[in-house]
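DATA SHEET
Item: assembly model
Revision: 1
Owner: S.N.
Input lines:
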Amino acid sequence: MKKDTKISNVVIKRLPRYRRYLKELQRKGISKISSNEFSRLIGYTASQIRQDLNNFGGFGQQGYGYNVDSLYNEISAILGLDQEYKMVIVGVGNLGQAIANYTYYYKAGFVVHGLFDVNPRLIGIKINDIEVMDYENLVEYVEDNNIDIGIICTTKDNAQEVADKLCFAGVKGIWNFAPIDLEVPDHVAVENVHLSDSLHSLAYHMNRNGESRQ
Amino acid sequence: MKKDTKISNVVIKRLPRYRRYLKELQRKGISKISSNEFSRLIGYTASQIRQDLNNFGGFGQQGYGYNVDSLYNEISAILGLDQEYKMVIVGVGNLGQAIANYTYYYKAGFVVHGLFDVNPRLIGIKINDIEVMDYENLVEYVEDNNIDIGIICTTKDNAQEVADKLCFAGVKGIWNFAPIDLEVPDHVAVENVHLSDSLHSLAYHMNRNGESRQ
DNA sequence: TAGATTGTTAATCGATTAACAATC
DNA sequence: TAGATTGTTAATCGATTAACAATC
């Protein structure tokens, strides 16, 4: 892995997609791919694929192409998916519960350790054997258990306060589902899933079709 | 609304954010804002704000700024949020149910009319008074009820088949939560919510912090 | 070795920012 | 009117694509 100059975020956003397609190739038992073949598959230009990968190092071999397995592993490592992350979910409404189940079943490497809510009717119930705890105890729990990621599934009005608590307690990242842009210290990463925004941009494209596509 | 040359997708992706901040200004009773004040609030440059808005028309007034209410309405109209959209959800697992509830409670203008699944234990149950129907009947239902949007909450292995059926039945847009890139006809818009990809890019940024931010 | 395909530099394209004349 | 702020053109910056020498 090379890595000296800052890598652009548009490149990073493409990495999980590369990885998904590589996984699929693995599944099909394909062990080798050229940037040209990969281009036809994934829809980026061969040039872009080579440029993107060379931000991190020379993973290919001239005259041959890229080894699927090792490229998959390299990208996984670049993304930091060779580690395990401890997570808590704050806000155990419909969305929070869905995310709890989703990560429980599908996301190896991202483990939900605690669920938190203010609602007394939720506190004490279990979701996949994880008890919902009182929001009051969030900071203490995050500190004591070295939680890496806080997932915010509260309303937008509570989201910033939750973010403040999570940051204070020492999380390194926040996965934010509340429709608001959070203020956090520089050393905390935030990734937003703004469902409304997504739906609204879908609405735009539905009304502009015929013209062209996203 | 001007609108002749094709507007870049990066601009469209910013519109819901403008709209969110304008809503907030409305809530605070602020009726007027300059691109400079707006810039400080939303974090885009004043120049970019003016450029973005002028893709669609001259919504401001020299020497004054922008009227919050009317700008909010203009952006809503550009996004197509002055209409109602009929939706179905295919796949009523945890995520599907969460989305059903989410849209039910929060998304005026986007109305879920039908829920579909293949699981016999789900067929017949009701979520917010909407019965889960047999996936077999999807195409017929979408055709008969002029459904605009299909929401795909199935596994990735079934997603393309569902998309094919939805397109065949005549939806204008697909909101896709399955971790796969769908192939659809040109006249159908697709908006992806790739939760895995989002989590993976969070992981990347968590390991690179100190350096800078997303 | 010859052929293929990468890694990388150079050219192009598009998006953002700066500047300022138009105008409310 | 003078001051403020837009709309818009021009300059810059960054990202994508093209080209090709390096090399397996």
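QC remark: Chain B has a mean pLDDT of 93.
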